[in-house]
Design a protein that fits this description.
alpha/beta, FAD/NAD(P)-binding domain, Cholesterol Oxidase, domain 2, 2 domains, 7-stranded mixed sheet, 11 helices, 18 strands, about 20% helix, about 20% strand, binds flavin-adenine dinucleotide, binds iron/sulfur cluster
Length: about 575
């Protein structure tokens, strides 16, 4: 029987996970005067050495492609560290027929070191979608409840954008956007012809000095981390102010296994694996913020079984693990001949799109539920490993003629990625695999995932729209999507868009939800779940801005409850 080491002191709050949700909670709770400990399953991060923003391919062994080109699927040497589709020693499983994929980051800051920084607000209708079309459920909160927190998050982290007054894409507190690139002006002109809005995108990248952080220098490498903290990561933007309070203790390499209850039914401690010593430890706190990411949070609660909660902590409703969704994703693109002869020009910018297409058919009758937006890619960014794969596959020959072909084709392709809303269904959820444990002996998650008819029709609509825009812009449409097969209309497998949400949802009734509208467990008042597990629906908007707004709101509520002595 391993010895369990008890932490010498009790904290006011223990936060589990240091990503978007955990980082936000750490800032608000410590600045509010509470003594906070944070458990993070990954190692510490030093941006100066761990981010490879300005490393050239020729500085890396095998130019970053790995021995025999084997690294090309993951390009880990071209990304911020410790984010992957496969975490060694920490597997997950899929039930027969399910192909869910799970991207996790094991590092301080979590996936906010890797994310695309697209920072969109949900619209008022997104919070009351059931009242509008009868599907899914309404949130127990409205846009008006969350809007002040969107304001606070945007004002603090810095998001660029423009005021557009589009009902499906509410405006925020914006820094000035960067100018459109050449490729984006082609898309914009095509969209104008088709009466589709194409507007400056909204990204958590600062275009002016902001709260002591220097502005973006337009190297275009956000996915590799930003040494100057000019884009948002929890590790560089949320955790430093928490540390400055002197009330914050970060414990890296600490994998929470189980939350344990006291005799009075409150959560009392968390048992965790210290990965560096492989020992089991316990940390005591008056309240717990579970922010390990949607599916890890569900896993932790499901694994925290007791006589009071035999189906998992705070799970008297049985909803934990249920209502899992991801964004509907389908991609296509176009070859634009006018770009072939384009002289070298300045394509510098942020590491993401400068323009995007918000959902525009909200006032029409569509043959699928809800909506989607379109993200743009392509152009003359620094070529990465694998950039010319397709040209090499299509072109004959090798040597100088092949290189010439690659140069000619470079920057002539514009990519379109649809991101749309999935309606929760009974067949899609995660539970604990009864027969598999990870390297630390912790039972792993098993995924069950199925798209519904509406999502497939939405993917079809995306493909048609991509084609319309490409052709209106004078390009040749290109897509691998087929109407049938495993991925009808190019719909990606569940999880691939990395917008998994909903597994510990909030709601007004403890019978049909696990959390109240402040992310507080109905069953155990000193447990809060502030990541996207709490979402009730998965609107087309990328979730992270909303995660931070909800975590900020929940943390202010927790502070208030602590001050009133209710925790
Ligand atoms: C490549 C990529 C691009 C993306 N692009 C966008 C985008 O443009 N816009 C957008 O809105 N979203 C985007 N996302 C999604 C975004 O990253 C997530 O929504 C966001 O990071 C989720 O925040 P979180 O706090 O819930 O979890 P995470 O950021 O995943 O952080 C969770 C942390 O908890 C830790 N943890 C897990 N389990 C335990 C445990 N048992 N004990 C202790 N610690 C634990 C993990 O190690 C991790 O550090 C993208 C994601 C990726 C990977
Ligand atoms: S593009 Fe800007 S924000 Fe992104 S890594 Fe470069 S400097 Fe940082």
């Amino acid at each position: 029987m391993p010895q369990i080491l008890r932490s010498p002191q009790a904290y006011d709050v223990c936060i589990i996970g240091s990503g978007a949700a955990g980082g936000t909670a750490a800032k608000i709770l410590t600045e509010g005067g509470l003594k906070v400990a944070m458990l993070e399953a990954g190692p510490a991060l030093d941006p100066a050495t761990d981010f490879k923003e300005h490393v050239w391919p020729y500085q890396l062994p095998h130019r970053g492609a790995g021995v025999g080109g084997k690294a090309t699927a993951d390009f880990t040497e071209f990304l911020a560290p410790n984010g992957s589709w496969d975490i060694p020693g920490e597997p997950y499983t899929n039930a027969p027929g399910s192909r869910f994929q799970w991207f996790r980051s094991r590092i301080v800051g979590g996936r906010t070191n890797h994310w695309g920084r697209i920072a969109l607000r949900c619209a008022p209708v997104d919070f009351r979608a059931r009242s509008t079309d009868g599907m899914g459920d309404d949130w127990p909160i409205s846009y008006e409840d969350v809007a002040p927190y969107y304001d606070k998050v945007e004002s603090y982290i810095g998001v660029f954008g423009t005021k557009e007054n589009i009902p499906s894409a509410p405006d925020g507190v914006f820094l000035p956007p960067p100018r459109p690139r050449c490729t984006e002006t082609i898309v914009k002109k095509a969209c104008d012809q088709l009466r589709i809005p194409c507007i400056p995108s909204r990204l958590a990248v600062i275009t002016q000095a902001h709260h002591g952080r220097p502005p973006c220098h337009y190297c275009g490498q956000c996915g590799r981390g930003c040494i100057t903290a000019s884009n948002f990561s929890s590790s560089q933007v949320m955790l430093p102010p928490a540390e400055q309070t002197g009330r914050f203790t970060l414990i890296p390499n600490a994998m929470a296994r189980e939350i344990l209850l006291a005799k009075d039914g409150r959560a009392q401690s968390v048992s965790y694996v210290d990965k560096t010593t492989r020992s089991e430890k316990k940390l005591y706190a008056k309240a717990f913020v579970v922010a390990a990411s949607t599916c890890e949070s569900a896993r932790l609660l499901l694994n925290s079984k007791s006589s009071t909660f035999p189906e998992g902590l705070a799970n008297s409703s049985g909803v934990i693990g249920r209502y899992l969704t991801d964004s509907v994703g389908s991609s296509g693109g176009g070859f634009f001949p006018q770009l072939v002869k384009m002289p070298p020009h300045n394509h510098d910018g942020v590491g993401g799109m400068h323009m995007y297409i918000p959902w525009w058919k909200y006032d029409r009758k569509n043959d699928f539920a809800r909506g989607y937006h379109i993200e743009l890619s392509g152009g003359r960014h620094m070529p990465g490993v694998g950039e010319f794969y397709e040209t090499c596959e299509e072109a004959e020959g090798y040597g100088v003629p092949l290189k010439q072909k690659c140069r000619e084709m470079y920057g002539t392709y514009i990519g379109f990625s649809g991101r749309g809303e999935m309606i929760p269904n009974q067949q899609t959820y995660c539970d604990i695999d009864p027969s598999v444990v990870d390297e630390w002996g912790i039972p792993v998650l098993r995924f069950h995932f199925q798209w519904g008819e509406s999502e497939i029709k939405m993917a079809r609509d995306m493909q048609q729209t991509f084609r319309d825009i490409v052709e209106a812009g004078g390009g040749t449409f290109y897509s691998k999507a087929r109407a049938d097969g495993a991925h009808p209309y190019g719909i990606h497998d569940g999880g691939v868009i990395i917008h998994e949400l909903g597994t510990v949802r909030m709601g007004s009734s403890p019978k049909t939800s696990a959390l109240n509208s402040y992310c507080q467990a109905h069953d155990v008042k000193n447990v809060f779940v502030t990541d996207a597990a709490c979402f009730v629906s998965n609107p087309d908007k990328n979730p992270t801005l909303t995660i931070m707004a909800l975590s900020w709101r929940a943390s202010e509520y927790l502070l208030d409850q602590a001050q009133k002595g209710n925790l």
